[in-house]
Amino acid sequence: MQDAFVRLHRRRDTLRDGDAALSYLRAIVCNSSRSRLRHLRMARRRHAQMVLPEDIGSAEQQAVHREDVRALLAGVAELPGRQREVLVLRYWLDLSERETAETLGIALGTVKAHAARAVAALGKRLKDTT
Predict the structure, then answer these.
(1) Rounded CA gap, 88 and 77, in Å?
(2) Contact between 23 and 102 (Cβ < 8 Å)
(3) Residue ranges covered by each domain of the chain
(4) Where residue 49 falls among pLDDT bands split at 50, 70, 90?
């Protein structure tokens, strides 16, 4: 996200705390990602295209993999927005709890609570579907 660095560079003189630049950069990336995801969801709905997963072996393995991925994505899609954001930042982008809290502008305990609830909900959903 080069645009995020450009935005940060343009606003560097207006930052109250120079140490907050990394948090500000993460917030820019997070907000830009949200906008991009909204755009992609709309485009996907319009075109109703399905992306095939990469080749992972036999037809049976592919079928099981597709169903596992579909179940996981369906579970994540049903989570409340904040829980989805916490999961993506924590487990996809591998941010710490503190970095996630700073990026989302929420308390550290709130990050922990959202992550725990999201993982529990996903676990229950995936257990129920198998």
Answers:
(1) 12
(2) yes
(3) 1-49, 57-130
(4) very low
Look at 48 and 125; give whichever has higher pLDDT. 125
Residues 104, 89 contacting (CB under 8 angstroms): yes
| Cα–Cα distance measured from residue 1 to residue 38, given in angstroms and rounded to the nearest whole number | 17
CATH architecture of 57-130: Orthogonal Bundle (1.10)
First to last CA, the chain: 38
In sequence order, the 6+-apart residues with CB closer than 8 A to the CB of 124 are none
What Å distances lie between residue 23 and 69, 95, 112, CA to CA? 31, 12, 18
Residues 90 and 111: beta-carbon distance below 8 Å = yes
pLDDT band at 38 (very low <50, low <70, confident <90, very high): confident
User: What does the pLDDT average to over 113-126?
Assistant: 91
